[in-house]
Amino acid sequence: MKKIMVDMDDVICDGGFLSLVNQFLGTNYKIEDIKTYYIQDVIPKERYPEWTAFFNTKNVYDYCNMLPDTYQVLEKLSKKYEIYITTAYIFRDNEEYSANNLKNKFEWLYKNLPFISPNNYIFTTNKEIIDCNIKIDDKLSNLKGKAETKLLFTAYHNKMITDKELKRNGVIRVNGWKDIEKILL
After folding, report:
1. Counting CB atoms within 10 angstroms of each CB, which of 5, 67, 124, 163 has the fewest?
2. Residue 160 CB coordination number (10 Å)
3. Beta strands per DSSP E along the chain
């Protein structure tokens, strides 16, 4: 069986981080309002200690939604491919919370994708080390390394990446799980 690396955040599920930022700030940001990869960059620097204390009491995955068609397409893919959910868990600004985040990710995956073995969860920030046939991620830099097919999953932070840049990196853009299904099944 060929092996697929699939990212979790903004590929399988989304919305949790933005929901918590809106709760904390009392705002109603939409994902289109976010102009950086890190959603928390909208929080004023002087409120960061307060944000960290708030965030540490939450499970971001309690506020996530599975993206459309994810379950159905991943389940079909799992019959033809060996799927590895490969996801980062270290928070840039909150490393001490990362152990909780790993636990929360594990529990969300275990509950929501029962057809993927927990033995196929890989928690790492360096996805370049993953040797597989196919990589699916929303961050272009995570598609580096060995893979015959590299799919960039469209997300709020990568829409400005040009077709020319994708071609130069040997990457195909997909706009959802139905696109992935057409390419891989």
Report:
1. 163
2. 7
3. 2-6, 13-14, 65-66, 81-87, 121-123, 134-137, 149-153, 172-174
